[in-house]
Amino acid sequence: MDLKYPPKMHFACLPTPVQYLPKLSEAFGGPEIYIKRDDLTGIGLTGNKIRKLEFLFAEAKAQNAELVITCGGVQSNHARATAIAAAKAGLRSHLMLRSSKNEAPDGNLFLDRLVDAEVTFISAEEYQAVDKMMAELADEYAKKNIKAYVIPEGGSNALGAFGYISATAELQEQLSQLGTVVDSVVLALGSGGTQAGLILGTKLLHTKWDVLGFNVCDDAPYFVKRIGKIIQDWRDTFKSNISIEENDIKIVDGYVGKGYGLSSKPELETIKEVARLEGILLDPVYTGKAMFGLKDQISQGRIDKNSKVLFLHTGGIFGLFPKKNLFF
């Protein structure tokens, strides 16, 4: 692939492994299920977010930023990864987290506090204007002669998309070494950047698999628009004429359940099933919902039992702890 990557910092432990899950494949009634372990990108930096942050932090450092600002839910994996990456990079961090109250530190929020991130809690209504609020916060820091770099929700923008363009190349090489070809790559969809990067990567590398995003909030039309914008921004920013159509953005809707960050019994039972069969820990906000969705799609015959599926484990283990009382 003749693609020039922007500068990046090296935080993640790469490549992350690809594993076959024979017991889960049997339990789900076929197809062959593989998993890409992006939950193993590094202790503390667990999950998919760090791939994007490697590029974003390189730009922040190039701009001589002293502090990074980002946002998310109170148990945001992205916010936690950003705070820890900031500590590693020698920068301060300020997180704007969606919550109705000043929460006790647990799970991701505990780790945010542990690395001394500044945390501002904002309401769900305020969060609708969070990009504007982060820009205003950066202006406030500028008045104090502190250069701040704003990272969007999920690290999901044109530059961040390079994280999963490069991950696509990594995955393609690993599958080649295993001598296998998958029909689809399945992932949880929260802010759109990971799927945007994977779609770009599949087009640039001419891979044969579909990218199926199981949205954990909002709905399919919302994400078709959001992912489409990230892809268009990437093409505009990096001067690419690569052709991607709206029907290349494949969303499997209907698995939001009770809502973002809220868990249903079938989702929790799926998390337990995967843990007990394969010793792999999913999270309740993202991967648990996506895996439940995959299981349900297989049971309905919407995914061919003779196909091969790769599940992208995007991390999030720390989100289990605030929900521990729901499991037993």
Fold and architecture overview:
There is one protein chain. This protein is of the alpha/beta class and 328 residues long. It has two domains: 18-47 and 158-326, Rossmann fold; 49-155, Rossmann fold, CATH 3.40.50. The protein has eleven helices and ten strands. Helix 2 crosses helix 7 (162-178), helix 3 packs parallel to helix 4 (107-114) and helix 7 (162-178) packs across helix 8. The termini are far apart.
Helical amount among residues, as a percent range?
40-55%
Uncertain runs are none
Q: Can you list the strand order of the major beta sheet?
A: 1-2-10-7-8-9
Count of helix runs = 11
Outline type: globular
Query: Could you report the average pLDDT, rounded to the nearest whole number?
Result: 96
Structure class: alpha/beta
Cα-atom Rg, whole angstroms? 19 Å
Tally of discrete structural domains: 2
Give structural attributes.
328 residues, single chain, Rossmann fold, 4-stranded parallel beta sheet, 11 helices, 6-stranded mixed beta sheet, alpha/beta, 2 domains, globular, 16% strand, 41% helix
